[in-house]
């Protein structure tokens, strides 16, 4: 189940989007997410769809890969959509016991669903086209001003990139432990919520122990390779804005402006 | 010239309870004296708990000896100001390939060391190129390490150390978690580095077969050097090795047993090929 989350899984192809500066992509994702919440009109969604589709095409990442990330939010999607359909006041379509579906509800539910899907797809594109190292590098640099108020920006960025690196490894490990415990008679499938939660203990304890061990190993390996914090560190790929980044920023501004203009 | 000198080195592991009371003290190393010559391929053998991994950690300043001195190219590892120089000189490859790869892309991981050292960008790229070529991992440079086999991951780890341009690489049981193919791969790479680049290799292992091709074999037991010599010398002392609960390479063991039962076979046979040769010679 966890394997379906594409967040944090870089898809290595060469495309315009891949080559953009991570800061540009971060800003782009941020603007896109904000724009989804600004707009309330159908034209706004049309524009967002066109924008998203264009970016997906330019990124050359297979659509199948992008939509994989959606599986993880299916439940959330169903819940929020049905809440919206049944709990919004307005002209009724049909009633289901005490529940009343309304046209207005259907509309907001539709928008809500699209919003959620676009949220996940939008941020998936960021992580699919940007290596976590670039991503954290981008965050580190664009948040660099926070260092003035004693926020350990470099350390946070490093932690994030390491966390991302270990997600697939820990997922695999979870799978292994799960199988090993199942083979010894553990039951993760049946029973109520409490029983299921209790069944997680023999899974989580070994997982945590192994994660701590890995962390200690990794810390040693990093130290052995002269890691001593952010001071005096250089980069193999220092972030530099290119012409394409400025073009991207212009497009982004135009997009945001258009979204604000047609927001109602 | 000796690149590594250990003089009267002691190291203890102390375990304490919640109240900081000492429960037990394990002497991992006691009065260890050892010198390793520049450019050599040295294999350190020993069963679990013989102190071999502790020794490895002392060599690049991950641990500091309790007493005694460790010198790497005449720099004391105890001195904090020169610690980074020590780590640049003596690179280290660990057992678990997954737990030593930091980045999500092969080339970025190889660049991690040089980045920490503050090398200028152009030179990092050059070093990464060369390092990946030396371990023949060029074609994987923009792949995710998760998609590599164990042996390939270890080669990436070696490249990561190579990019720091060390004079010496310490490999702490690098093959323990690998399949036979990956094992061969890593050993071949280590030998190539030793031969072509002149890098001193310290290979720590408990697999006897890996020690056969080394220039020098050091057997450790209870935190000191128990035996020291060429593979031929060491592996002909079968009884002593057994006492240290170590095995001998199969071919060496068989020739030892044959000799014991009266066959006039020559000493110092380590590989299967040598054994076959010696036996056919006898037949003539």
Structure description:
The complex is a heterodimer of chains A (264) and B (284). Chain A has 264 residues and is mostly helical. Chain A has 2 domains: 1-130 and 234-264, no CATH class; 152-232, no CATH class. Chain A is 67% helix and 3% strand. Chain A is built from 11 helices and 2 strands; from the N terminus they run αααααββαααααα. Chain A has a two-stranded antiparallel ribbon with strand order 1-2. In chain A, α2 (22-38) runs antiparallel to α6 and α8 packs across α10 (201-224). The two termini of chain A are 39 Å apart. In chain A, 26% of the residues are buried. Chain B is α/β, with parallel strands linked by helices. Chain B has a domain at 39-61 and 76-231: P-loop containing nucleotide triphosphate hydrolases (Rossmann fold). Chain B has helices at 52-59, 83-89, 106-117, 121-134, 150-162, 180-196, 231-236, 238-243, 250-260, 272-283; strands spanning 2-16, 22-37, 41-45, 67-72, 75-76, 90-93, 168-172, 200-205, 216-221, 224-229. In chain B, the strands form 2 sheets. Chain B has a 6-stranded mixed sheet with strand order 6-7-8-3-9-10, with helices on both faces. A 4-stranded antiparallel sheet of chain B has the order 2-1-4-5. The longest helix of chain B is centred in the middle third of the chain and has 17 residues, at 180-196. Chain B is globular and about 65 Å long. The chains are: A mainly alpha (264), B alpha/beta (284). The interface between A and B is large, with 30 and 41 residues.
């Amino acid at each position: 189940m966890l394997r379906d989350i594409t967040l944090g899984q870089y898809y290595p192809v060469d495309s315009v989007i891949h080559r953009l500066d991570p800061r540009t992509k971060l800003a782009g994702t941020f603007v896109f997410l904000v724009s989804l919440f600004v707009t309330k009109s159908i034209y706004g969604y049309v524009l967002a769809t066109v924008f998203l589709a264009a970016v997906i095409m330019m990124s050359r990442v297979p659509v199948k890969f992008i939509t994989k990330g959606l599986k993880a939010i299916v439940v959330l999607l169903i819940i929020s959509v049905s809440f919206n359909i049944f709990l919004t006041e307005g002209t009724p379509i049909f009633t289901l016991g005490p529940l009343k579906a309304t046209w207005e509800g259907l509309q907001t539910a539709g928008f809500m669903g699209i919003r959620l899907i676009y949220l996940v797809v939008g941020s998936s594109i960021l992580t699919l086209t940007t290596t976590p190292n670039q991503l954290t590098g981008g965050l580190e640099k664009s948040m660099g001003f926070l260092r003035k108020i004693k926020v350990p920006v470099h350390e946070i960025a490093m932690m994030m990139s390491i966390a991302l690196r270990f997600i697939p490894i820990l997922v695999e490990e979870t799978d292994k432990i799960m199988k090993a415990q199942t083979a010894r008679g553990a039951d993760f499938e049946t029973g109520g919520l409490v029983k299921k939660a209790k069944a997680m203990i023999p899974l989580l304890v070994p997982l945590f122990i192994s994660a701590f061990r890995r962390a200690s190993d990794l810390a040693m390996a990093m130290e052995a390779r002269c890691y001593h914090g952010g001071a005096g560190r250089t980069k193999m790929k220092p972030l530099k804005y290119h012409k394409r980044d400025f073009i991207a920023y212009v497009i982004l501004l135009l997009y945001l402006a258009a979204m604000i203009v047609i927001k109602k | 010239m000796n690149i590594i000198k250990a003089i009267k080195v002691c190291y203890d592991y102390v375990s304490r309870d919640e109240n900081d009371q000492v429960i037990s003290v394990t002497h991992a190393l006691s009065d260890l004296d050892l010198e390793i010559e520049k450019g050599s391929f040295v294999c350190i053998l020993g069963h679990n708990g013989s102190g071999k991994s502790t020794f490895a950690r002392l060599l690049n300043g991950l641990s500091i000896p309790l007493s005694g001195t460790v010198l790497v190219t005449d720099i004391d590892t105890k001195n904090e100001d020169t610690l980074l120089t020590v780590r640049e000189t003596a690179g280290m490859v660990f057992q678990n390939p997954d737990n030593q790869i930091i980045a999500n892309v092969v080339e970025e991981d190889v660049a991690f060391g040089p980045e920490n050292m503050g090398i200028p960008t152009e030179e990092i790229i050059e070093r990464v190129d060369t390092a990946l070529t030396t371990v023949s991992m060029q074609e994987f440079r923009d792949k995710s390490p998760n998609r590599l086999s164990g042996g390939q991951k270890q080669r990436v780890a070696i490249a990561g150390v190579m990019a720091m341009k060390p004079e010496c690489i310490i490999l702490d049981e690098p093959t323990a978690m690998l399949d036979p193919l990956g094992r061969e791969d890593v050993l071949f790479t280590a030998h190539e580095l030793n031969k072509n680049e002149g890098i001193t290799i310290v290979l720590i292992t408990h697999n006897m077969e890996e020690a056969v091709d080394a220039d020098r074999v050091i057997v450790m037991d209870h935190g000191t050097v128990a035996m020291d010599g060429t593979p031929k010398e060491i592996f002909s002392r079968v009884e002593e090795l057994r006492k240290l609960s170590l095995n001998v390479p199969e071919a060496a063991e068989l020739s030892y047993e044959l000799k014991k039962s009266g066959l006039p076979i020559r000493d110092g046979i380590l590989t299967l090929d040598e054994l076959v040769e010696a036996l056919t010679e006898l037949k003539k």
